[in-house]
Amino acid sequence: MSFSYPASWSVRTQRGPGREGPGFQPIEAIVSDGTGADLFRIASGADGIGCTAGPVSRTVLDEAAVPGMTEVDGSTPMFGFIVERIGGQDQYAMAVMNRRNLQEGEAGSHCTLLVMGNGGSVNQVIFFDEPATLATRSAFSSRQAAKEWMATEQYAQLKALILSLKYS
């Protein structure tokens, strides 16, 4: 995996999620801004990971093809910024995902697992320091606040990073 990011940002790597084994060596890259705040994570080479899905009502706020990536089935993954209504609360996700996760309306919750040549790849923009926080609060106070964030430099930089992802 490779990608472009602003000069003031940094990247650190660590062992990624999933199990290791012949042909599988999971690694995760975490991108931080100039203040050290974690903004994005992507893992590659994973085995033994998956997704669970519950019923949601999904709205797509933004989407675009990620031309530098191709799943093993030949499909081109998509950048997506989505909001899913779950249990009366809006949950936001910004990531690379399969096109099926960008269908609006009643659906199963999204999954960022991509099947790549070296195993599974998962990724996400990091809205909170603790992943468990997603279950208890929304990343934005309203859908309007999310749409306003889309006009910021940070949103543009994160989207550009995601669209620059290349898998080789």
Report on the structure:
- With 168 residues, the chain is mainly beta.
- The protein has one domain.
- 11% of the residues lie in helices and 38% in strands.
- It is built from 2 helices and 9 strands, in the order βββββββββαα.
- The longest helix is centred in the C-terminal third of the chain and has 11 residues.
State the major sheet.
5 strands, antiparallel
- Kindly report the oligomeric state of this protein: single chain
C-alpha end-to-end distance: 6 Å
What's the total helix number? 2
Low-confidence parts: none
Order of strands across the main sheet: 1-2-3-9-8
Mean pLDDT: 88
The run of helices and strands is EEEEEEEEEHH
Q: How many separate domains?
A: 1
Helix content: 10-25%
* Proportion of strand residues: 35-45%
Shape: globular
| Rg for CA atoms | 15 Å
- Number-wise, the strands total 9
Structural class: mainly beta
